[in-house]
Amino acid sequence: MQLRELSSLTGVPIASIKFYLREGLLPPGRRLSATRSDYDEAHARRIATIQTLRGVNDLSIAQIRAIVALIDAGASRVEIMKSLQREVQSLGEPVPGRTQAGNAVVALRGWPDVPTAARGALDAHLEQMARLGVSVPPAALDVYSRAVDLIAHVDVEDAAAAEDLDTLVARVAVGMHMHRELVLKLLALAQTSRSIEIDRRVPMSVRARSYATRVAESA
Fold first, then answer.
1. How far is Cα 40 from Cα 197, in angstroms, rounded to an integer?
2. What pLDDT score does 90 carry?
3. How many CB atoms lie within 10 A of CB 30?
4. Nearby residues of 86 by Cβ (< 8 Å), 6 or more positions away
5. Start and end of every HTH merR-type domain (predicted)?
6. Is 25 within 8 Å of 64 (Cβ atoms)?
7. Do 40 and 78 form a contact (C-beta atoms < 8 A)?
8. 119 touches 106 (CB < 8 A)
9. Looking at residue 48, what is its pLDDT?
């Protein structure tokens, strides 16, 4: 297909497609003449990937270029997913193994104890919690890690089934943002629902006395 057809198929303006070509995000088409090139479904998939990374994940052109360079170089799916996770979630450099809690949860879940940006980010967050005096009981860490392990299994299996690397990136990018937000919203609803259940178990007389006490204290 020619450029105009590619634009019509993807819904992306010709000017934007030319920009992607100039920036090296989109591979050049097969040259037909000095002014015409032929494009195929792979170009349409790459444009969809670029649009996802920009629109859903708000990545910069430089960040997108680094990710598609891995695709074009034939990098492994694991390396592409790790790079995408690092860019999308701003995880920083992998510096793992700094906290006992981090070591414990990795051993508990049987996760590979290897240097990754995600592991380093977990340790950094646990250190911040410790500085603020926020404890993480082992039982809570067990429940949280077991829950997210189940979620991760669904996400990664879905991504691994992608038929090509561009589709893989698009699925992972959407999952990292939209699915993460879904989990947070579900957690908020669950916490609210549990609070309502607990409140309903408290006798009305107790709630009334508690309210009266607060009013008296504020007077």
1. 56
2. 73
3. 10
4. 92, 117
5. 1-70
6. yes
7. no
8. yes
9. 93
